[in-house]
Amino acid sequence: MSTTFTEAIEETAALQSYRHEPTAQLTKHSPSSSNHEDESPSSEDDPSEEPPLDDNPPALIDPTLPHPTPSFPGKEKKFWGGFGAFKYQSNRIKIINKTPNLTLTGGKFTISQFCISEGQDPSNINKIGNVLPLDDKHRITFKVGRHGTEEVAEWWKKFVPPAKNTFVSKPHKLNFAFLGTLRLDFEGKGGGEGGSFNFFDVALGFGDYAGLINHWWFGGSICTAIGDNEVSCNGMSAEGGVAGLEANFRRGGFGNSADEVEITQGTFR
Fold first, then answer.
1. pTM (2 decimals)?
2. Buried b / exposed e across 115-126, counting CB within 10 Å, b at 16+?
């Protein structure tokens, strides 16, 4: 069927009417790059109508909550600084009696001075006058963190020069160091003489030498190095008696564990 001239005119008019219908305004998500200065932004683009900025936006992490401690699967890792949680260590040193004439029955260590690396005793549990008893295995336990520093090593050197410790040397770094009175209680073997004796200004430290493995250091102002990783120290009677005890202490050398001090000889004087 052919289209008449009149019908063609009507179709053309309808098409022109469709092309001039208003189109929906598009929302802009970024500034326009158009050079037309006479274009007015829509209400969505008008900066004056944007919501005000929040001066206190919500925090991504609630500052009132504790920071999470990182976990290491299969292995516990402890930290001394700001990354991770601090944890006190039970640092134990064992006193082993190897004298032929005495049996060690007990004792204690009374703190008179100490030096601890910064941040390793945040609760200040170590104090002058604290008494640390020997446990049933003859061990003394120091509750403190571990982080070796040269500052503690320098403190040790002032009180315990090489001639006064079993290594006849100077530590590179120490985690902590304590000075105090070491009291040791003995019974005589075979009905022999015994007693309790105070060894004043005994020094116990934990750290390394020249960057090597950590181990205990032993010495004191009343001690004298005699070779073979031993010092001789004079003890005074703790019971008011006249007699004293000259004891040899060994720390280091072949067969001596890094956490043991051996009493190799005890002579009454």
1. 0.69
2. bbbeebbeeeeb
- For residue 39, which of 55, 26, 49, 50 has the smallest C-alpha distance? 26
Instruction: Tell me how far the alpha carbon of residue 60 is from its chain's centroid.
Output: 29
Domain count, the chain: 1
Asked if residue 140 lies in contact with residue 132, where contact means CB atoms within 8 angstroms, the answer is yes
Q: Pairing state of beta strands 230-237 and 245-250?
A: antiparallel
Q: How many CA atoms lie within 13 A of 207 on its CB side?
A: 29
Specify the DSSP element, H or E, that contains 152.
helix 150-159
pLDDT digits (tens, 9 = 90+) for 112-123: 999 999 999 999
Per the prediction, the chain carries an average pLDDT of 78
| C-alpha closest to that of 205 among 262, 163, 142 | 142
Region 6-18: mean pLDDT is: 48
pLDDT (mean) for 249-253: 96
Token match 């008696």: residue? 241
Residue 23 within any structural domain of the chain = no
Q: Is residue 33 part of a domain?
A: no
Give the pLDDT of residue 211: 62
Q: Say if 41 falls within a structural domain.
A: no
Neighbours of 156 (CB within 10 A): 25
* Contact of 250 with 229, CB cutoff 8 Å: yes
3-state secondary structure of 91: strand
Which is more confident, 22 or 214?
214
Instruction: Flag whether 5 is in a domain.
Output: no
Using DSSP, state whether 74 is helix, strand or coil.
coil
pLDDT at 214: 86
